[in-house]
Amino acid sequence: MFNTREDQFANGDIRTHYRTFEVAPLTPHIGAEVRHVDLAEPLSNEGAQDLHDAWMDWKVLVFRNQHLNREQHKAFGRRFGTLHVHPMQHKYRGDPEILTVKTTAKSPYTAGDGWHTDVTCDAVPPLGSMLYVTETPECGGGDTLFADMYLAYRMLSEPIQRFLDGLTAVHDGAIPYIGSYKSTPPPGGYPRNEHPVVTRHPVTRRKILYVNQGFTSHIVGLSRAESRAVLEMLYSHINSTPRLWGRVPWQPNTLTFWDNRCTQHHAVWDYYPHSRYGERVSILGTERPSA
Ligand code: SIN
User: 15 C-alpha vs ligand 1 centroid, how far in Å?
Assistant: First the structure.
């Protein structure tokens, strides 16, 4: 819990100037628009290091007016690691490293319409995702909300932090992929894995609240009723604390790159019957989430 007003409002480490570009923050702690970087151009090592630093600082980076083909999109992803293949890709033909995010008047659902972290059912979930939106709804809307899960942990009281530290929870792909998306599982089923409820970011070493409504089925070692009550309390903290959030209003040809280890996101479907189209590349994590 914050001890003082100064602590609560401390934003002392805001950085907006990097060697090769500047950023314009969307909020004081999550989300920044990167100025004057053309992702279709080769990225220098210095530029890549700056982007990594800015990504660590801001968690969500937004690049406007980008004109990328699929190979350029994937090449940008590969600057940060190996590309991830989504567990639902067995259902689709096409490039396994590109996840299409398409919503029209005929869509039964829109992907990611609820707070979640991508694919935490995997043993090693993606460390980040890059969504490149090329078509936005004519009526406006279709924004994506992001939540800062460092801050979500930091805003909990110390007794609750102590209670959560050391617990683990199960993350089950069947919840969204079968439950919400009605997708036939691949042979062997969708992934299901246990992760700490509070993780540490492998780069910043800061603590993160790491349960999400999209994938977490239960907390290990608690009764069903206890687990449900604790998870509902944590989800309500995320759902009802606007200070945790940043909002990305898309324009055509915007690419947003989020750190999937310390954020959650929520795609807002407020534009029915209009359409929205994007393609996502995700980068495989380098290790299992750990405390
Ligand atoms: C997702 O990756 O969950 C989709 C996000 C979005 O469409 O804004």
Answer: 27
130 CB near ligand 1 (under 6 Å): no
Instruction: Give the per-residue pLDDT at 3.
Output: 47
Q: Catalytic site residues? A: 116, 118, 265, 280
The overall pTM is greater than 0.85? yes
> From the CB of 267, is ligand 1 less than 6 Å away?
yes
* Distances, alpha carbon 190 to alpha carbons 84, 178, 193, in Å: 15, 9, 10
Cα of 114 from ligand 1 centre, angstroms: 10
State which of 259, 280, 281 you would mutate to test the pocket of ligand 1, scoring each by most atoms of that ligand within 8 A of its C-beta. 280
Is the pLDDT at 22 greater than 50? The verdict is yes
Domain boundaries, the chain: 6-284
The domain made up of 6-284 has a fold known as Double-stranded beta-helix (3.60.130)
Query: What Rg do the C-alpha atoms of the chain give, in angstroms?
Result: 19
What is the per-residue pLDDT across 160-190, written as a single tens digit (0 to 9) for each?
Answer: 999 999 999 999 999 999 988 888 898 889 9
Nearest to 260 by CA among 149, 111, 99, 143: 149
- Tell me what the pLDDT averaged over the chain comes to: 94
Question: What span, in angstroms and rounded, lies between the C-alpha atoms of 212 and 235?
Answer: 7
Q: Is 112 in the pocket of ligand 1 (CB under 6 A)?
A: yes
Residue 9 has pLDDT above 60, yes or no: no
Question: How remote is the CA of residue 132 from the centroid of ligand 1, in Å?
Answer: 10
- For 233, other C-beta atoms within 10 Å of its C-beta total 11
31 Cβ below 6 A of ligand 1: no
